C-alpha cells in the first residue's frame, strides 16, 4: 500500500530550509519565505527554476513572492494563516506529484508575527476561529482561554496537574538548549515554571508558544526522482487529515474521536505501527495540547497523558523523544513547519547532540478540530 491505494508510488522530501528565528525587523513574511526556500533548494541541490509547483502558507502576497524569485510555477496555490492549514498544504503537494501534474513542489511558510505585532485573540486576530459573536461576550477571546478551559476539564476528569504541564515545558526547553536556532535556551526549572505569571489561569506564560519571525520550506518530489538528488530521500509513508470544525473548538472529548480516525488512517497507509515510530513531533501551541494529542493518537490511554509525560517518555533518551528542536514552546512558533523539518532531519540522522539514535520513522501529530498526521521514514515501503 502507498499514499494512494493500490499504487506503489512514493513521495520524498529532498530539501529543507529555515531562516533564523526571533525578531527580524529587516524582513517581512515574503522575504522570510524566500530565504527559507533558497536554503531548501541549496539543501536539495536544485535551483528555483527546477521547482514546478509552489504551495505557500500564510504568505498573503503570492504574486510578490513569485515576482521576486522570478519563478514560473505550473502549480501555484496559497492557504490561510492558521497552523491547521499545514496538513492541507502538504496534501496538495503530495497529490500534485502523484497525479503527474508536476514533479517537484516546494511548500513554503513565512511569518513576521513578532515584528508585525501579531496577537492571537481579540478582534484584531486574523487567524482565529471566527466565533467572536458566540464567545467574546463570555471572555473566550483567545486560543489560550480555550485551552485553559479544556485543561480544567481534563484535570477535573482525570486528575491532570500543572506539574505535568511543567514537565512538557521543561523537556522541550532542554531540547532547545541543543538547538542553535532556538529562541529560548535558558535552563528552566520547576520553580521557574511555577513562578511564571498566569496568562489565563491555570496556564502560565511558559505554557504558551513563542510568536516570532521566521520562515520554513520543504521540497518534495517523486520517490523515483529523489534517488538522484543530493540528499538521501526521506519518504512520506503516510499522511492523513480529518476536520471536525463543525463541533467547535471545545469538543467534549478533547478531539479524541477525530485524532483516533486520523491515527488509524495514517498508520494503515504507512504500514507502520506506533511501535515502529522512533520519535514524535507534536504541535505544541499550548502545553495541554500535547497531553490531548498523545491520548488522541493512542500513545497512551485516555486520561493518562499527564502521567505519561511526567514519566519522561518525551525526553531525549525516553521511549518517544518529542519536539527535539524545542518545539513551539522554546524554538519558535512556526505553526508546525519547523517540527516537520525536524522530523526530516531526524530521519536523515544529522542532528548531533539532539539526534535520536537510529531514527527510522518519525511521526508528526497535530490535534484540534482539524487534525493531521504525517509519518516520515527512511524507507519507502
Please give a structural write-up.
With 381 residues, the chain is of the alpha/beta class. It is globular. A hairpin with a 2-residue loop joins strand 5 and strand 6. 35% of the residues lie in helices and 18% in strands. The protein folds into two domains: 1-118 and 211-231, Thiolase/Chalcone synthase (Peroxisomal Thiolase, Chain A, domain 1); 121-207 and 235-349 and 356-381, Peroxisomal Thiolase, Chain A, domain 1.
Report the radius of gyration as a whole number of Å.
19 Å
Low-confidence regions: none
Q: Kindly name the structural category.
A: alpha/beta
Report the count of strand segments: 11
Number of helices: 14
The spatial strand order of the largest sheet comes to 3-2-4-7-1-8-11-10-9
Overall average pLDDT: 92
Can you identify the CATH superfamily of the largest domain?
Thiolase/Chalcone synthase
Strand proportion:
15-25%
CA-CA gap between termini? 8 Å
Q: Largest sheet, described in full?
A: 9 strands, mixed
- CATH topology name of the largest domain, in short, is Peroxisomal Thiolase, Chain A, domain 1
Topology as H/E string? EHEHEHEHHHHHEEEHEHEHHHHEE
Multimeric organization: single chain
Short key terms for the protein model shown above:
381 residues; alpha/beta; Peroxisomal Thiolase, Chain A, domain 1; 11 strands
Question: What is the topological layout?
Answer:
Blueprint: E1 11-18, H1 29-44, E2 53-57, H2 62-69, E3 75-79, H3 86-98, E4 104-112, H4 113-116, H5 132-135, H6 143-158, H7 162-176, H8 190-195, E5 198-200, E6 203-204, E7 213-222, H9 223-226, E8 234-243, H10 256-270, E9 279-282, H11 287-296, H12 305-310, H13 327-330, H14 337-348, E10 361-366, E11 370-377
Helix pairs in contact: 1-2, 7-11, 10-11
Amino acid at each position: 500500500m502507498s499514499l494512494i491505494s493500490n499504487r506503489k508510488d512514493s513521495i520524498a522530501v529532498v530539501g529543507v530550509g529555515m531562516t533564523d528565528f526571533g525578531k527580524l525587523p529587516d524582513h517581512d513574511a515574503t522575504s522570510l519565505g524566500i530565504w527559507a526556500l533558497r536554503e531548501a533548494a541549496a539543501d536539495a541541490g536544485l535551483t528555483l527554476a527546477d521547482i514546478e509547483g509552489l504551495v505557500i502558507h500564510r504568505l498573503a502576497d503570492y504574486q510578490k513572492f513569485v515576482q521576486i524569485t522570478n519563478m514560473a510555477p505550473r502549480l501555484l496555490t496559497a492557504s490561510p494563516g492558521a497552523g491547521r492549514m499545514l496538513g492541507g498544504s502538504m496534501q496538495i503537494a503530495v497529490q500534485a506529484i502523484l497525479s503527474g501534474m508536476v514533479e517537484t513542489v516546494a511548500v513554503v511558510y513565512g511569518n513576521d508575527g513578532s515584528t508585525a505585532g501579531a496577537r492571537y485573540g481579540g478582534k484584531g486576530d486574523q487567524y482565529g476561529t471566527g466565533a467572536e459573536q458566540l464567545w467574546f461576550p463570555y471572555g473566550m477571546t483567545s486560543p489560550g482561554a480555550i485551552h485553559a478551559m479544556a485543561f480544567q476539564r481534563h484535570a477535573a476528569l482525570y486528575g491532570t496537574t500543572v506539574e505535568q504541564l511543567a514537565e512538557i515545558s521543561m523537556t522541550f526547553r532542554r531540547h532547545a538548549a541543543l538547538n542553535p536556532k532556538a529562541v529560548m535556551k535558558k535552563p528552566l526549572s520547576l520553580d521557574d515554571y511555577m513562578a511564571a505569571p498566569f496568562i489565563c489561569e491555570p496556564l502560565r506564560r511558559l505554557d504558551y508558544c513563542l510568536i516570532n519571525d521566521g520562515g520554513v520550506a520543504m521540497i518534495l518530489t517523486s520517490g523515483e526522482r529523489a534517488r538522484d538528488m543530493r540528499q538521501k530521500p526521506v519518504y512520506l509513508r503516510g499522511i492523513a487529515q480529518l476536520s471536525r470544525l463543525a463541533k467547535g473548538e471545545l469538543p467534549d472529548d478533547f478531539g479524541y474521536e477525530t485524532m483516533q480516525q486520523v491515527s488509524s488512517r495514517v498508520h494503515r497507509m504507512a504500514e507502520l505501527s506506533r511501535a515502529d515510530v522512533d520519535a514524535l513531533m507534536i504541535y505544541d501551541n499550548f502545553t495541554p495540547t500535547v497531553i490531548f494529542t498523545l491520548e488522541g493518537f493512542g500513545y497512551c490511554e485516555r486520561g493518562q497523558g499527564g502521567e505519561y509525560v511526567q514519566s519522561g517518555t518525551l525526553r531525549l533518551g525516553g521511549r518517544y523523544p518529542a519536539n527535539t528542536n524545542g518545539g513551539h514552546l522554546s524554538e519558535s512558533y512556526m505553526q508546525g513547519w519547523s517540527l516537520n523539518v525536524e522530523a526530516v532531519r531526524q530521519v536523515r540522522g544529522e542532528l548531533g547532540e539532539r539526534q535520536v539514535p537510529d531514527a527510522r520513522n518519525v511521526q508528526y501529530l497535530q490535534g484540534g478540530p482539524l487534525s493531521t498526521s504525517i509519518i516520515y521514514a527512511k524507507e519507502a515501503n
